[in-house]
Structures are given as C-alpha cells and as structure tokens.
TrEMBL record, chain A:
<feature type="transmembrane region" description="Helical">
    <location>
        <begin position="93"/>
        <end position="112"/>
    </location>
</feature>
<dbReference type="InterPro" id="IPR001851">
    <property type="entry name" value="ABC_transp_permease"/>
</dbReference>
<keyword id="KW-1133">Transmembrane helix</keyword>
<dbReference type="Pfam" id="PF02653">
    <property type="entry name" value="BPD_transp_2"/>
</dbReference>
<feature type="transmembrane region" description="Helical">
    <location>
        <begin position="12"/>
        <end position="31"/>
    </location>
</feature>
<protein>
    <submittedName>
        <fullName>Amino acid/amide ABC transporter membrane protein 1 (HAAT family)</fullName>
    </submittedName>
</protein>
<keyword id="KW-1003">Cell membrane</keyword>
<keyword id="KW-0029">Amino-acid transport</keyword>
<feature type="transmembrane region" description="Helical">
    <location>
        <begin position="138"/>
        <end position="157"/>
    </location>
</feature>
From TrEMBL, chain B:
<feature type="transmembrane region" description="Helical">
    <location>
        <begin position="27"/>
        <end position="46"/>
    </location>
</feature>
<keyword id="KW-1133">Transmembrane helix</keyword>
<keyword id="KW-0812">Transmembrane</keyword>
<feature type="transmembrane region" description="Helical">
    <location>
        <begin position="273"/>
        <end position="293"/>
    </location>
</feature>
<feature type="transmembrane region" description="Helical">
    <location>
        <begin position="58"/>
        <end position="77"/>
    </location>
</feature>
<dbReference type="InterPro" id="IPR001851">
    <property type="entry name" value="ABC_transp_permease"/>
</dbReference>
<feature type="transmembrane region" description="Helical">
    <location>
        <begin position="151"/>
        <end position="169"/>
    </location>
</feature>
<dbReference type="Pfam" id="PF02653">
    <property type="entry name" value="BPD_transp_2"/>
</dbReference>
<feature type="transmembrane region" description="Helical">
    <location>
        <begin position="190"/>
        <end position="212"/>
    </location>
</feature>
Length: 286, 321
C-alpha cells in the first residue's frame, strides 16, 4: 500500500461522506431542520435497493426505487411530524432521534443484525490501472460522482429559480410567503431531496463498506461533522470538509490504529470549540 | 411545609419497603430506576438548569463504569475507593467538556458534546488492553458488595445522598449563578460573574454525579461495555429529562422511572423495545416538551402558559430556543 493509494482511499471515503453530507447540508445546514434521522434514511435507501436487487430487480432500477422510496418516507416524516416543530431545535432532535430508532429497529427486525454487503454497481467492478497505480474502479467513479454532485447542488442553489426560492424561504420566511413563495411546499421538497440524497449515499455506501442496522448513526455523525466543520449551508465547505475528514480518517487508521475515532472526534470538537461557524462558514451562529 | 415533610417521610417509607415487598426482579428494576434517576438528575444540572443541551453525557456515565471495572479487575479496589475516584474522574471529564463548550450554544453545544463523547467511545473501543474493546469487561467480581435487596438499599443510600447534594448545590449561591447564566449571560457577566467558570463548574458537577451513577450501574450489572458510552445513553438521558420535566428538580428522575418502567412492561410483550422507545421519543417531542410534571402543573392550575412558578422552586424555563 503506497501513500498514493492511501490518499486515494481517503479521497474516495471522503467522497462517500460528501454524498451523505450533501443531503444534510441542505436540510440541516440550509433549512435549519435538525434531522438526526439522516443516517436512518441512508440505511433505508441502502437496504431497500439491496433487497430489490437481491430479488432479481435490475440494479439501477433498484437504486432508483430505493432513493425515491426513502425520499417519500422522508417527506411523509416531514409532513406528518417534523412540520409541527419548525424552529424548535430541541424537540426536532428528540423527534428525529425517535424516527431513527424506529427505522433502525425495523430494519433489524426485517433483515437481522448481521452486516450485509450490497454488490458493486455493474460495470464498476474490478481495478483501473493508471501506470503503476492499481485502484478499484468503483472508488474512482465515486470520487467523480461526489465532485459532480457538489458542482450540481451548488449550481442548483445558486443559479436556478428554485434555488433562489429556497434561499429566500430560509432567509426570511414571512417575506418569502408574502411574495408568493409556497414556503411549506419548498420545505417539503427540500426535505425530500435531502433524504433522497441520503438514500443515494446509502446505496453507494453499502457497496463501499457494508450496511448494518447500527451503521446509520455512525454515518450520521460523520455527516454532521462534515456539515458543521464545513460551515452550515455551504456546499463547497461541506465538500472540502468531507475530503479532509476522509483523509484524516484513513491516515489516522493507518498511522495510529489504537486512536481511531478519538483523533477524529477530538479534533472535530477542537475545531468547533475554536471556530463554531465552521471552516468556510460566514458569520458566527447566533 | 408540613405537607412537604409528610411527603418525604411517606416516600422514604415506600422506598425502604421495596426490597421487603417486591420480588427480586422488581427490586432489580427499582435499583436501575434509582441509578438512572440519579443520572438524569445530574444531567439536568447542565441541561434544564444550565440551559445547555448536551448529547454527550454517556461519556461521564461510561467513565464512571470503566473506573469501577478497571479498578476492580486490576487492583481489586473496594467500593469505598472506586466510588470517590469515579466521582473525581467524572468531574475532571466534565470540566474538560465544559472548556470545549465555552463559546458554543444550542445545537453547536450539542454537537461538540456528541463529538467529545464519541472520542471517549473511540478510546474505550480501540484501547483494547485497558478496556477490553468491544467486549468490555465482563464478570466483574463484587467482593463485599451486597446483591439483591442489599444492593438496592445501598443504591438508595448513595442516590439519596447524591440527589440531596445536587439539590443543595442548585440552591447554593454557586448553583444559582448557573441559573442566572442561563437566564441572562450578559447580565451575569456585567455583574462581575465569570460566565466561563460557571459553565465549567456546571459541567464538572454534572459529570461527577453522572459518573457515580455509571459506577453504580456497573455494580448492579457486574459488567461494563462500550454500550454504556454509546450515543443512545446520551439520547435516553436527554429524553428522561424532557419527558419528566426539565424545569422541575425531580422531573428527570420521574422521566427515568417512566421510561424504565415502560421498558420492562413493553419487553414482556415484544422484542421490539427499541421501536417503542422511538415512539416514546416522537410523542415526547410532539406533545410533552414541558414534561409530565410541567403538564400536570398546568392541568392543576388550569392555565396554559407555564409562566408562573412557585417562589421556593428554582425556576427552569424552556430549554428550547
């Protein structure tokens, strides 16, 4: 294992983290809805796609159904539960933790506690040879997908009318309403987009590592770290933070195996203690 | 005042009667309620009382537990030594957490405490020589420590002492500064109080007694594992406090009793306790943000806004932003 391979591994893992964090950047970072069930929707998408694919459904179709299914579930949760708690952070936290527990436990009941290993997407198996470097094709593609997604979501928020409406709804709800923006609908759709992205990450994350009913929270935590360290609501910030966390995680594991997690979370706590607005965040929160 | 003394006497008699009246399983459950109730009361120093939503208190609970596990299996320390050491280590850990939280509020505080407790979890998970890693430390001998009803009485004594200490602390001048800080930080610092010191103190006191609860839990269970450090524990104690009523001193204790009792009851019917717990979280968030005690008080007074409090009670306002 060369340093280059480790770097690429770190970048690939970071890219996966960005996939997870992209949805959370939108729901939590931008819309300020604390969604601690994000990891559960990641699991939901991953397990749904895995279940369908293992019953013979076409891989890509299974992925789409997994993503759409989780997005619909997310919108239902937003509409029926979370919607009532707009602006109330603490109840949101308790509620979404409850949703996460229910989804995690139901997955445990249906699929058992052993980790599952969803297949690598067809066409992306095997290695790529770049000169002396041999690297899994899947991971390389993942790095590309994350970069593409980062650009796409940034552009969506920045240059499209929908993005402008979202930003308006976040900045000043009352004003947005009075100029005819349907804020509740926007919130609902954005939440669906966020959970859909989580599910998309779950499908790819399953193929990257594996899925188990407890892995949802681990993923959520890393995504929270990425979103907050990057600066709330900042897609470029989240992208940079995700790659940084991926690299720290990979090299931390190689260099100080007994201190994995400790090094990561202690440094994250330190970053937040010193710079609560995150690396690329603008003003201090509140 | 007379009514209050009577209530305390009746409660004491009922609590002391538990091991005589109930079967051994119920006594075990009662011991667990005492321990988790103490944990929730200690947690509330930071949460309801201090207005700082922590999602990392499992760290203190687990540190108390691992102190007992490691000290007994390595050096065969007696309980009289492990408990004070757990208290001190919990206080130190609490102070460290407090230092990290000096500049952050609300969700950020929650995330920092969560990250810190995950760091502690990581230590326990990967430093396998000291902690046994994922397996934890099973089969901890409890020489000289009674079991069953005897342990219940011991836990009752420890809990009574600790809860009384917390009560006294919260009403002491030092404790009142925490309340003042929560109500208006700027006014407190303008009056000359060191707000940073107050925050660190709140965390240290809370961490110390949370660790005592964690230590007791290990004596009850006879083992300690990374489960005691997991985020679920932090989330549960948060829910205990909200469900029971974070604005009242005994609210969190009541919340711990309700959830623990519910767990026993639900578990006799189904294995899906976690799902039921999730539903409890959801219902708490939707309908009980001022807790059972807050709700009862409102019903009794027939008023809707929880504005007014009895003057002799520490007023703990809504923690939500």
């Amino acid at each position: 294992m060369s340093w280059l391979t480790h770097t690429l591994n770190g970048l690939a893992y970071g890219s996966l983290l960005f996939l997870v964090a992209s949805g959370l950047t939108i729901t939590f970072g931008l819309m300020r809805t604390v969604n601690l069930a994000h990891g559960a929707f990641y699991l939901l998408g991953g397990y749904l796609a895995y279940d369908l694919a293992s019953r013979g459904t076409d891989y890509w179709l299974a992925m789409v159904i997994g993503v759409v299914g989780a997005a619909v579930a997310g919108m239902a949760a937003q509409r029926l539960l979370l919607h009532r708690l707009t602006g109330q952070e603490l109840p949101q936290i308790v509620l979404t933790l409850g949703v996460a527990l229910v989804i995690g436990d139901q997955i445990l009941a249906h699929y058992g506690g052993d980790p599952i290993s969803p297949p690598t997407p067809p066409g992306l198996t095997g290695p790529v040879e770049l000169g002396a470097l041999v690297f899994p094709k899947f991971r390389l593609v993942l790095i590309g997908i994350a970069l593409g997604l980062a650009l796409l979501v940034s552009a969506l928020l920045r240059y499209t009318p929908i993005g402008a409406k979202v930003r308006a709804a976040v900045d000043d709800q009352e004003m947005a309403r009075s100029v005819g923006i349907r804020v509740p609908l926007i919130f609902l759709l954005v939440f669906g987009l966020g959970t859909g992205l989580a599910a998309f990450a779950g499908v790819w994350g399953g193929a990257f590592t594996s899925l188990s009913p407890d892995s949802g929270f681990e993923v959520l935590l890393l995504a929270l770290v990425v979103v907050v360290v990057g600066g709330l609501g900042s897609i470029p910030g989240a992208y940079v933070a995700a790659l940084a966390v991926g690299l720290v995680e990979e090299f931390g594991r190689v260099l100080f195996p007994g201190w994995a997690m400790f090094t990561l979370y202690a440094s994250v706590a330190l970053v937040l203690a010193l710079r609560p607005q995150g690396l690329l965040g603008k003003a201090a929160p509140r | 005042m007379k009514g209050r003394i009577l209530a305390v006497v009746v409660a004491a008699v009922l609590l002391l009667a538990v091991p005589v009246v109930l079967d051994s399983f119920s006594v075990f459950v009662a011991s667990r309620i005492l321990i988790l109730g103490l944990f929730a009361t200690a947690y509330n120093v930071v949460f309801g009382y201090g207005g700082m939503p922590s999602l990392g208190h499992a760290a203190f609970f687990g540190i108390g537990g691992y102190t007992v596990g490691i000290a007994i299996t390595r050096w065969a320390w007696p309980m009289a030594l492990t408990m004070p050491v757990a208290l001190v280590l919990g206080a130190v850990a609490g102070a460290v957490f407090g230092l990290f939280c000096l500049r952050v509020r609300g969700v950020y505080l929650l995330l920092i405490t969560l990250a810190l407790s995950q760091a502690v979890f990581g230590l326990a998970f990967y430093q396998t020589e000291l902690t046994g890693g994922d397996n934890g430390i099973p089969g901890i001998p409890r020489d000289g420590v009674p079991t069953g009803g005897g342990f219940y009485l011991l836990a009752l004594a420890v809990t009574a002492v600790c809860v009384s200490a917390l009560w006294a602390f919260q009403r002491s001048p030092a404790g009142m500064t925490i309340l003042g800080m929560r109500e208006s930080e700027s006014r407190m610092s303008a009056t000359g109080y060191q707000v940073n010191t107050i925050r660190v103190m709140a965390f240290a006191v809370s961490g110390a007694f949370s660790a005592v609860a964690g230590a007791l839990e290990v004596y009850l269970q006879g083992s300690v594992s990374t489960a005691s450090l997991s985020w679920q524990i932090s989330a549960e104690v948060l829910v205990f406090a909200i469900l029971g009523g974070a604005r009242r001193f005994l609210g969190p204790f009541l919340g711990a009793a309700i959830v623990t009792g519910l767990e026993v009851w639900v578990s006799t019917y189904t294995d899906r306790w976690t799902t039921a717990l999730g539903v409890v979280y959801i219902l708490t968030a939707l309908f009980l943000t001022d807790g059972v005690l807050g709700r009862l008080r409102r019903l009794r007074r027939g008023t809707s806004p929880p504005a007014e409090q009895a003057p002799d009670e520490p007023v703990i306002v809504e923690v939500r932003k």
